Amino acid sequence: MSDTLHFDLVSPERRLFAGKVDQVVVPGAEGDFAVLPKHAPFMSVIRPGAITVTEDGKDTRTFIRGGFAEVTPSGLTILAEEAIDLADVDADKLAQDITNAGEDVGAAKDDAEREAAQAALDALTDLQDALNG
């Protein structure tokens, strides 16, 4: 690859990826955007969704929740609150987890418990949306 983009994906736990790629499609707060080599610098808040990284013509998808994307002359850095390789997600288990989380929302005994259960359900449905998208 003669014309590549340096890309870093970092979560609170560790650096998940660092290397040269063809492009990255990011779910920005105001819509998806693609970053290619020599992209103009900017920053964006990230909404929950999947990033698609194209490397040597092959796409890989990673679910990210929250964080920031920064494009600089040296490349793209994504600081994600959470990152999950979509290839590692078991769709059947995820569907069961969503069912269980929905039951937890219905069984909540107070507002605080209901809000926590709803947040867990929302996180799981965001992951499912990214997996199906």
Q: Which residue ranges are poorly predicted, with pLDDT under 50 across at least 5 consecutive positions?
A: none
CATH topology of the largest domain: ATP Synthase, domain 1
Give the termini separation: 28 Å
Largest sheet: 8 strands, mixed
Q: From the alpha-carbon coordinates, what is the Rg to the nearest angstrom?
A: 17 Å
Percent of residues in helical segments?
25-40%
Beta-strand share of residues: over 45%
Count of β-strands: 8
Q: Provide the CATH top-level class of the largest domain.
A: Mainly Beta
**Shape-level CATH architecture of the largest domain:** Sandwich
Q: Whole-number average pLDDT?
A: 93
The CATH superfamily of the largest domain appears as: F0F1 ATP synthase delta/epsilon subunit, N-terminal
Q: Give me the oligomer status.
A: single chain
Helix/strand order, N-terminal first: EEEEEEEEHH
| H/I helix tally | 2
The secondary-structure class comes to alpha+beta
Number of domains: 2
Overall 3D form: elongated
Task: Write up what this structure looks like.
This protein has 2 helices and 8 strands. With 133 residues, the chain is an alpha+beta fold. It folds into 2 domains: 83 residues, F0F1 ATP synthase delta/epsilon subunit, N-terminal (ATP Synthase, domain 1); 43 residues. A hairpin with a 2-residue loop joins strand 6 and strand 7. Helix 1 packs antiparallel against helix 2. The model has no long low-confidence stretch (mean pLDDT 93).
